[in-house]
Amino acid sequence: CSLRLFQKFDNFRILVCGGDGSVGWVLSEIDKLSLHKQASCQLGVLPLGTGNDLARVLGWGGSCDDDTQLPQILEKLERASTKMLDR
Predict the structure, then answer these.
(1) Does the pLDDT value for residue 60 go beyond 80?
(2) From its phi and psi, is residue 79 left (phi > 0), alpha (psi between -120 and 50) or beta?
(3) For the DAGKc domain, which residue ranges apply (predicted)?
(4) Is the pTM of this model over 0.85?
(5) Do the domain assignments include residue 73?
(6) Is residue 83 part of a domain?
(7) Do 51 and 19 meet the contact criterion of CB atoms below 8 Å apart?
(8) Domain limits at 60?
């Protein structure tokens, strides 16, 4: 799993491009590698999947279907505040 690369960093951010299933998979892999125990492990979501309930609830929107907006979306994610997620 390429997430092993993040074991070398104290602080990192991951952008998941997909839906609820993709987010769940990445979170499970983060748990398996104990990356969530590091100083700062942050996850953002670019809602591209068919099920984007998590993205909607967290205020990221239901879908991203306009790729011309990608630079603005990335800037917004860079400035976003963090929220704890208990799953």
Answers:
(1) no
(2) alpha
(3) 1-87
(4) no
(5) yes
(6) no
(7) yes
(8) 2-77
